[in-house]
Every structure is written in structure tokens, then in C-alpha cells.
């Protein structure tokens, strides 16, 4: 499993956490833990099934921005 940490500056509450984690876990093999206090999303996934581009797109689909 590959692990990445992404900064999501506009994540600020429990609803944000649930929305981001919910969207990410729709992707195959993805496990996510979002922390609104630190604005960090920790993601683990199988690179042979999904890529970082799809993970970032899922966060954006949930309505949030991933910092560069």
C-alpha cells in the first residue's frame, strides 16, 4: 500500500471530514483519515488500482481544494 498526506485548506469541520472520507472510500483499495484540525488527509491505497490523480479528483468532487 502507498501512503500519502494531502493538505486540504478548506476542510474545517466534521461534515467536511465525512464528505472527503466518503468520496475517497468510493475508490478501490482507498482508506482515508481526514483531520479538520490539521487540514491533513492521510490516504493509503494500492497504486496498481488507483493513482494520486484520482484521489485528488475525488477530494475536489466532494467540493474541496487540495493544496499544491
UniProtKB/TrEMBL annotation:
One annotated GO molecular function: metal ion binding
InterPro entries on file: HMA_dom, HMA_dom_sf
CDD domains: HMA
Domain HMA: from-to ranges: 2-67
Top-level lineage group: Bacteria
Protein name: Copper chaperone CopZ
Species of provenance: Rubrobacter xylanophilus
Chain's gene name: copZ
Amino acid at each position: 500500500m502507498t501512503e500519502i498526506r494531502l493538505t486540504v485548506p478548506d476542510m474545517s469541520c466534521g461534515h467536511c471530514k465525512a464528505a472527503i472520507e466518503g468520496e475517497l472510500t468510493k475508490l478501490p483499495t482507498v482508506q482515508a483519515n481526514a483531520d479538520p484540525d490539521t487540514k491533513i488527509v492521510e490516504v493509503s491505497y494500492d497504486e496498481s488500482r488507483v493513482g494520486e490523480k484520482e484521489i485528488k479528483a475525488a477530494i475536489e468532487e466532494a467540493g474541496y481544494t487540495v493544496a499544491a
